[in-house]
Each structure stands twice: as structure tokens, then as C-alpha cells.
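From the shared-data thread, chain only:
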Amino acid sequence: MADTQSSSLMDGLHAPDVAGPAPAAKPRGVRQTAALGFAILSLVVLGVVLTRAVQSHSNSPSEMSKRRTLVDSETGTVFANHPVSLQETVPFTNPKTGKRTLFPAEACYWTKDGGAKLTPTYVLLNEAVGKPGPTLCPDCGRKVVFHNPLPPAEDMLKAAQIDAK
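Structure, as C-alpha cells:
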């Protein structure tokens, strides 16, 4: 008669009686290390690209045209970078009061001593609200006009150097 005993793949293998030390981790191969480095670099590059894309969208001419610096004609409050609806017309609605008292501001970059400054004084033009006479900057006393011109480039550069100190 033939032997009827079946064999198993597990024959001859016995569980150890005492747990020994854990096997040492195998050092990563050069290919694994390179792949991990490439993956990390790819994630960093993707992050930079996405950040730049978002920034360029928010600085696009289309997005910038939807934001204005406005002055409230009743209170003089400046609303910098205020969103405006394409359907809304001047005067714009003040979100705090609900009144249509916001007008485009003109920026004056001059100082009292005739120099330039980097942070402008925002001015509401008299002609925008129907007042007679020229509009004078409350900071420097100069006449402010529609599309008020900047000081000369060398004066702006000097102001930037002073501001950097």
C-alpha cells in the first residue's frame, strides 16, 4: 500500500520558542533613495507652481480691475483694495453704512518738504463730489488732480532707500 500521509509546505518549520531580536532594517538602495528625493522635489516644485498660479491670478489685470481704493465722502474713511461690482457705478456703496458715498481716491506720494514717500495719502477730488475749487492734499498741501502724477523716479528711489533703513 502506498503511504497516505500528506505533506504540507509548512512541514519542518517550527515557530521559535523565544522571540529573537528584530531583523535589522535593510539599507535603502540607491534607486529607492533617488525615487524618494525625486518625489519630494516634485512636491516642492508643484507647491511653488500652484502658489505662483494663485498669486498671478489675484494680480491679473482682470482681478485688479475689480478692486479700487475708495474714499467715503462723508467720513473721509479710506477703503483700500475694496471690491467693486461690475454692475455698480460711482458713487459705490459703503459696506458699513449702506449709503452710496464711496468715490475713487487719488494717491499723493509727495511730502511737505517736496520729497517722495512710498505710502500715499489718498485724497477725494473736489470735482468728484461737486465741490468748487482745486483739491489740495491734506498731507503735503500740493494740488491733486485726476490721475495724479508720481514724483520723479529718482525721488521715489530715494524714498525706497530711506524706507529700507
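The first helix runs from residue 30 to 58.
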